């Protein structure tokens, strides 16, 4: 989840840094809601469940033991990722390359 592949900088023809890690902190809820800002917490709110939980489905990565679950009403969370701190060069980011976000 969130692995980045090498892509070209359209402005300069240079390759971006290869990102092989998930840039999100606490992506699966191992730390409960740590690193996430809850912006909507409707119904019975956000919570973290153990796999396989109510879904009854195992995840393809056995290292993932928890997941975020929501309620019957709107629940939203967000996280800011500092791309400079993650190793992306400023000149690459200044070219405004396409960014893909998956959750």
Automatic annotation (TrEMBL):
<dbReference type="GO" id="GO:0036503">
    <property type="term" value="P:ERAD pathway"/>
</dbReference>
<dbReference type="GO" id="GO:0019005">
    <property type="term" value="C:SCF ubiquitin ligase complex"/>
</dbReference>
<protein>
    <recommendedName>
        <fullName>FBA domain-containing protein</fullName>
    </recommendedName>
</protein>
<dbReference type="GO" id="GO:0005737">
    <property type="term" value="C:cytoplasm"/>
</dbReference>
<feature type="domain" description="FBA">
    <location>
        <begin position="12"/>
        <end position="103"/>
    </location>
</feature>
<dbReference type="InterPro" id="IPR007397">
    <property type="entry name" value="F-box-assoc_dom"/>
</dbReference>
<dbReference type="InterPro" id="IPR039752">
    <property type="entry name" value="F-box_only"/>
</dbReference>
<feature type="region of interest" description="Disordered">
    <location>
        <begin position="1"/>
        <end position="49"/>
    </location>
</feature>
<dbReference type="GO" id="GO:0031146">
    <property type="term" value="P:SCF-dependent proteasomal ubiquitin-dependent protein catabolic process"/>
</dbReference>
<dbReference type="GO" id="GO:0006516">
    <property type="term" value="P:glycoprotein catabolic process"/>
</dbReference>
<dbReference type="Pfam" id="PF04300">
    <property type="entry name" value="FBA"/>
</dbReference>
<dbReference type="GO" id="GO:0061630">
    <property type="term" value="F:ubiquitin protein ligase activity"/>
</dbReference>
<dbReference type="InterPro" id="IPR008979">
    <property type="entry name" value="Galactose-bd-like_sf"/>
</dbReference>
């Amino acid at each position: 989840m969130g692995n980045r592949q090498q892509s070209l900088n359209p402005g300069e023809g240079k390759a971006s840094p290869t990102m092989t890690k998930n840039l999100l902190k606490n992506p699966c809820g191992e730390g409960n809601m740590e690193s996430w800002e809850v912006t909507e917490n409707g119904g019975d709110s956000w919570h973290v469940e153990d796999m396989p939980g109510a879904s009854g489905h195992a995840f393809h990565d056995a290292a993932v033991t928890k997941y975020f679950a929501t309620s019957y009403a709107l629940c939203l969370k967000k996280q800011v990722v500092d791309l400079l701190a993650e190793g992306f060069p400023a000149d690459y980011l200044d070219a405004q390359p396409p960014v893909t976000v998956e959750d």
